[in-house]
Amino acid sequence: MALSDTTVRQARITGNDYTIGDTDGLALNVTARGGKIWRFRYYWAGVQKRMSLGSYPQISLKEARARRDEARALVAQGINPYEHRKQQRRAIRFAAEHTFEAVFNQWVEFRRLSLKEGRQSTLSQILRIFNKDVLPTLGGRSIYDINRHDLLDLLSRIEQRKALTTAEKCRTWFNQLFRYALVKIEGLEHNPASDLDVVALPKPPVTHNPFLRMDELPALMVALRKYGGASQTRLGLRLLLLTGVRTGELRLATPDQFDLEKRLWVIPAEVVKQLQLAMRKPGKQTQNVPPYIVPLSVQALEIVRHMLDQVVPAQRYLFAHRSDLSKRISENTLNGALRRMGYADQLTGHGMRATISTALNEIGYPKVWVDAQLSHADPDKVSAAYNHAEYVEQRRTMMQDWANRLDLWGQGQLKAASSPLTIRLEGAASLPSFENASANSIQFNGAFPVTAVSMPKASVSNEPALIVPHQSPVVPLSVPTEKPHKSHVSDIQRERAEMLAIYEAASNLPLLVFAKLAGKSRDQINRDIKARRLLSLSLGNRGQRIPDWQLDPLRHKLVLTALARIPDVDAWRLYRTVCEPHERLRGRSPIDVLTLENFDVTARIVCSVLGRT
């Protein structure tokens, strides 16, 4: 029988709990103390369930029936109304707890683990841009409520003010933030920041830092000598021009980075842009990333000595801030000096690197030397981990020649300073770019003879003397053949190249290809590799390669035998042992001669070579 408002209102207290039924599972539960609670009974998976719909009189009979009908509709759709309500309440609670700003702060703390602090660091840019452009709009909103159109609207406002680079960075950071939130925030099911780049406004062509050609260097050297600003700024610009380091590396230079005896500037990896990327790679040990080694010419060494003589106890950096010795020189100081010298839109501190690179390549120095001097990324991924610390002595000669040429340009000797250089290194493997050198190739073995002369009258008396060459930098000097020049290809590079050739051989298959041929899943193959039931080769982060001859049961058995007898054997050593010819096998490899009849003998030979019988 259906309830009425009067029946509900007049339900008496009896001292015991009792229930008054309505229709379609709705009932009023009257407690011993007089409380009145609406209950809804329903069946779920064959079991009767009960859920509360609220208390009377806060929820009237009409409202209780409406809630009952909503619950029945959910049951009809295959949805448990009780669990559905729990999820709704949880979503409301999460929405209040997980605002965009709260999630952003969590993400920033996570990023701090891998990003360094600093005025122009990625972390500082994230904080500055989000505080200015993002948090005022999205900060107080629930992370669950933010959709793609919200992000597009915000990005379009940034693009409208022509800040296209900022918009590009925001798209990247939005995607990273929401990917983080998908894993960390319960109930978040999609990433609204994906594919935002599809509708991004195209960026204008990249404008590289302006730089000078060789015929413009004489005027620069004169302007640099006549610069009337701070002595420290002039010397900083000259040191940039003598070494090719980045302005950030110069500003972060500390006295302990310089080895005056060896004439080296050893810049820690965490300061160098290219090496920072290497340090962030997963699994890369920071201490295993070598520093950026910069050989110093005589002229550069004189500047460093002069600056070191000026260092005081409170000073942390070689080029200190004018008003605070504990801080480094401002990032705008060097570029501001160039503007005052008349080089606005013609040259920047970073553009000096392009100036040096262009000039040295035009003069005729090997590109690998120039790239190593400038710490450029090596496109050869196999040798990239070594090249930035190589060619030190070759670069020392090159940079001494460059310093001498700068002095010649400053003295107006344009022809001598701009003369091309052809190099033949006796006793060393020919470099590809010099194989067609003429018979008149010039030989040299080190720095050119130099003498010190006094600075022009316009210079400051306590600055280092200008070093000028005694003669033209292109001087024929013989190299004794009994002391051949060291090849620029190291043993480590050669070994890595050989390993790469083996790794990429057609017989060594990618994991998925091998799995398909073996009739197994990728996970099964991975488990076999991990359990040492399968020989696989790895090289850096290139993934696994598996020799296809392991598809042959007998050859696979040979590998299993070796792995069982020598559990700690290196995969590359085992591969070479079974694939390379052996004298005891008449110059053939174990996998080539292997048969059922000679299996035991072949296995003993393999294990003997590996170090056990």
Summarize this structure briefly:
It holds the Pfam family Phage_integrase. Residues 98-182 form the Core-binding (CB) domain. The chain is of the alpha+beta class and 613 residues long.
Please tag this protein with its features:
single chain; 613 residues; alpha+beta; Double Stranded RNA Binding Domain; DNA polymerase, domain 1; hpI Integrase, Chain A; 4 domains; three-stranded antiparallel sheet; 25 helices; flat
Please mark out the parts with pLDDT under 50 across 5 or more consecutive residues, or reply none.
379-388, 423-489
As for the CATH topology of the largest domain, it is hpI Integrase, Chain A
Instruction: Count every beta strand, where a strand is a DSSP E run of 2 or more residues.
Output: 12
Helix content: 40-55%
Largest sheet: 4 strands, antiparallel
CATH top level of the largest domain is Mainly Alpha
Radius of gyration: 37 Å
What percent of residues are in strands?
A: 5-15%
CATH architecture of the largest domain: Orthogonal Bundle
Query: Major sheet: order of its strands?
Result: 1-2-3-4
Annotated CATH homologous superfamily of the largest domain: Intergrase catalytic core
Query: What's the N-to-C terminus distance?
Result: 92 Å
Overall pLDDT confidence: 81
The number of domains: 4
Protein structure class: alpha+beta
Number of helices: 25
The global form is flat
Protein name: Integrase
Family: Belongs to the 'phage' integrase family.
GO molecular function: DNA binding
Pfam families: Arm-DNA-bind_3, Phage_int_M, Phage_integrase
